[in-house]
Amino acid sequence: xxxxxxxxxxxxxxxxxxxxxxxxxxxxxxxxxxxxxxxxxxxxxxxxxxxxxxxxxxxxxxxxxxxxxxxxxxxxxxxxxxxxxxxxxxxxxxxxx
Length: 97
Prior knowledge:
By secondary structure, the chain is an all-alpha fold. It has a domain at 8-68. Helix content is 41%, strand content 0%. The longest helix is centred in the N-terminal third of the chain and has 13 residues, at 20-32.
């Protein structure tokens, strides 16, 4: 049986964003599915796009979900004194007054 090979434009047509996710999908599909399973694989990829939360912990498809998540933009700025002042710690038994 021949391994299933999906092309980038086919994966984009399903709704996957451009980027590393395309390559990961191509690798996973080629490793796990045969040509006879194309319809099943496409339906599974659509399900991953629709409900990625259901596949987060999956051993195989979790990689796809990881690359679907968009990075959270970080605001760069000057870091000030964020920690509250802390009382000094004295080791040993408390001092009796």
